[in-house]
Amino acid sequence: MEITYQRESYPGLGVAEFADVLARSTLAERRPVGDARALEGMLANANLIMTARAGGLLVGISRALTDFSFCTYLSDLAVDQAYQRQGIGKRLIALTHEAAGRHTMLTLLAAPRAREYYPKIGMIRHDSCWIIERAPRDLG
């Protein structure tokens, strides 16, 4: 089946569809798939979302935050496990970087299982990333 790629946004791209592709990829292990409000915020506040679809089914997503001038943070790259190893993730990264501007530096934090993937597609490891862990979310 042919894979089609496009730029999408919320609310056209819905929370249920986003949660579903996360669940069909390994990314659901590290995303709040059971918290619809969090997923809604993730979609609504991302300013660059690229998708891959097979016959209308969402099989891949790249969700990024960018200023279109200097930096692009690729927060989520998820590809349905049944569609992995077909170049979908690599294509989503390229389309994201193209849409943000090739003059921006594209940055991502690799999921543990994907650490070996990124060098294979030409990304460079950077060893000075620093984080502050997220606090528990107030669900009230």
Please explain how this structure is put together:
The longest helix is centred in the last third of the chain and has 13 residues, at 88-100. The model has no long low-confidence stretch (mean pLDDT 92). It is built from 4 helices and 5 strands, in the order E-H-H-E-E-E-H-E-H. It starts with a strand and ends in a 20-residue tail after the last helix. It is an alpha+beta fold. The protein has a 5-stranded mixed beta sheet, sandwiched between helices.
DSSP strand content? 25-35%
Overall tally of structural domains: 1
The CATH class, by name, is: Alpha Beta
Strand-pairing-aware structural class? alpha+beta
Q: Tell me, what's the shape?
A: globular
The residue fraction in helices comes out at 25-40%
Biggest sheet strand order reads 1-2-3-4-5
Estimated radius of gyration: 15 Å
CATH topology: Aminopeptidase
CATH architecture: 3-Layer(aba) Sandwich
By CATH, the superfamily comes out as Gcn5-related N-acetyltransferase (GNAT)
Largest sheet: 5 strands, mixed
Q: What is the number of helices? A: 4
User: Residue-averaged pLDDT, rounded?
Assistant: 92
Low-confidence stretches: none
The count of strands amounts to 5
Order of helices and strands: EHHEEEHEH
Distance between the termini: 44 Å
